[in-house]
Amino acid sequence: MQQAGLTFEVIPARGEEVITSEEPAEVVKQLSFQKAAEIFSKETGINLENEPLETLSVNGNFDKKSSDNFGDFSKEDIESPVVIGADTVVSYKQKILGKPKDKEQARKMISGIQGEEHKVITGVTVLWKQGGKVRSIVFAEETQVFVYDMTDEEIEAYISTDEPYDKAGAYGIQGMFGVYVKGIHGDYNNVVGLPIARLYQTLTYYNLVVH
Questions:
Q1: Number of folded domains in the chain?
Q2: InterPro entries per the record (predicted)?
Q3: DSSP 149-207
Q4: How many Å apart are CA 73 and CA 104, to the nearest integer?
Q5: By CB distance 3.0 to 4.6 Å, which of 36, 42, 57, 119 could disulfide with 125?
């Protein structure tokens, strides 16, 4: 968010996670919505269970921006904070890898993805009230990651650091694990944890950017 020059405040969500899908992209979209909804309700006092919700979408074509795109999307009509929720998972052979709880889980995750390809999927939800309506945008961004072969010694050395234990898939591409990443296909920042380019383009498309 700092990279995009946006003004923001980080507020952690504490609510219970409820998942009704096994498909990774749907899981992260559900979790990102739950996070955003929790904070939106706290900040506005609006219970989304009792409030009509207008769901918007962007077809991915951000090239033709003009005031015509905004329609009734005027900054002056925004009646609440713009709340963004995000959740990231690693998907390997159709299995979701979250954050490892201990060294054994970290070892198993790294042993699995080394020498292989996996996907990093981030779900993003944007919630705000505008013109008397509560509006939402929900999307998932996917990046393919290719990892070099790792020796048992390299795996043990890595999981003996603090780096794996607060990250989905037990690694951080921006940290020490970066030397084992052969390449990626897609958004690098998505692997870090937030697809800032797509998020920024989406916010700009709906005239929600506040610097």
A1: 1
A2: ITPase-like_fam (IPR029001), Maf-like (IPR003697)
A3: ---HHHHHHHHTSSGGGGSGGG--TTTGGGGGEEEEES-HHHHHT--HHHHHHHHHHTT
A4: 50
A5: 36
Greater pLDDT, 133 or 111? 111
pLDDT, position 2: 67
User: What confidence score (pLDDT) does residue 67 get?
Assistant: 46
- Find the domain containing 94 and state its range: 24-59+70-205
Query: CA-based angle 8:13:14, to the nearest 5?
Result: 155
pLDDT value at position 62? 64
Q: Collapsing DSSP states into helix, strand and coil, what is residue 23?
A: coil
pLDDT tens digits, one per residue of 150-161: 999 999 999 999
Residue 159: CATH number of its domain: 3.90.950.10
Residues in the chain: 211
**Residue 35 lies inside a defined structural domain of this protein:** yes
pTM: 0.87
pLDDT in tens, 96-119: 998 999 999 999 999 999 999 999
Instruction: For residues 57 and 24, give the distance between their C-alpha atoms in angstroms, rounded to a whole number.
Output: 20
